[in-house]
Each structure stands twice: as structure tokens, then as C-alpha cells.
Design goal:
It contains four helices and seven strands, in the order βααβββαβαββ. By secondary structure, it is an alpha+beta fold. A seven-stranded mixed β-sheet has the order 1-2-3-4-5-7-6, with helices on both faces. A hairpin with a 4-residue loop joins β2 and β3.
């Protein structure tokens, strides 16, 4: 894929209305208002992926303490851009980010994207069908 996109953590570039509309239609986003989405963005470390013309392709956010733990949430690619590899690009970029790559544990919940996340080192937690993590914390 040619570099026809860019990824930014600048929240002012995010299309909050489009994010809310997309998330509201997903199984995990039932009932979220625009105000809810605005507040989650304000209180999270966010990534937007955009075309070279600044049209938003997708979004992902991480709730984190910036040292030990991060929780991947709302990783989405807008419908017209799906199937073009942007989800993989976004997840890979998020995991290589200077803040995120040093976290001891990164967790997420997914009902239907285990295959995507497994390729980046996420493993199922216990016998949960939803929870996955990358755990680099040494316990000895």
C-alpha cells in the first residue's frame, strides 16, 4: 500500500461525529451519546488514521496509566475503507508508539477480532472468549 495515509494522535483532527455514528452501530457501543464519545476521547490516548486529504479512515484509543497498563478500545475502520489493510496498519502503529510499546500489559476485549490481535502477540486470558492481552510483566 502506497503511503496514501497518515496516523496522528492529534485529537483536533478526529471526526467525533463519524466516530460516534460508527460506534453506535457496533455491539459494544450501544447507547453511547455524542457527549459520551467526546468524554472518552478527552480521557484517552487516541489515534486517528487519515487519507492524505485528512479524511478520517479509522480510530483507536487506549486508556492507560502511561507506565504499566493500557486498554485498547474502539479500534475501528470506517466502512468505506474496510478490507484494505488499514486496521492492521492502525493496530501495528498503536503497538509501536513510544508510549504504548513500553507498557507492561496491554489488554482488550473483542467478540470477533481475535485473529487480528493474535498476529500482534495478544493471547487469550484464561478461558475467556473475549479478553486478550500482551503481558510483559515479569513476576519472578
Amino acid at each position: 500500500m502506497e503511503q496514501e495515509y497518515f496516523i496522528s494522535t492529534e485529537k483536533n483532527l478526529l471526526n467525533v461525529n463519524a466516530i460516534k455514528t460508527f460506534i453506535a452501530d457496533e455491539y459494544w457501543g450501544d447507547g453511547r451519546t455524542l457527549e459520551d464519545v467526546e468524554k472518552t476521547i478527552k480521557n484517552s490516548y487516541c489515534f486517528g488514521i487519515y487519507t492524505s486529504d485528512k479524511e478520517q479512515i479509522g480510530f483507536g484509543r487506549i486508556v492507560t496509566d502511561y507506565i504499566y497498563f493500557g486498554y485498547f478500545m474502539d479500534v475501528i475502520i470506517f466502512e468505506k475503507f474496510q478490507g484494505k489493510g488499514y486496521g492492521k496498519i492502525l493496530v501495528e502503529h498503536m503497538l509501536k508508539d513510544d508510549v504504548i510499546k513500553n507498557l507492561k500489559t496491554i489488554a482488550l476485549k473483542t467478540k470477533d477480532a481475535q485473529g487480528l490481535y493474535e498476529r500482534y502477540g495478544f493471547k487469550t486470558i484464561g478461558d475467556s472468549p473475549l479478553w486478550m492481552s500482551i503481558d510483559k510483566q515479569k513476576l519472578d
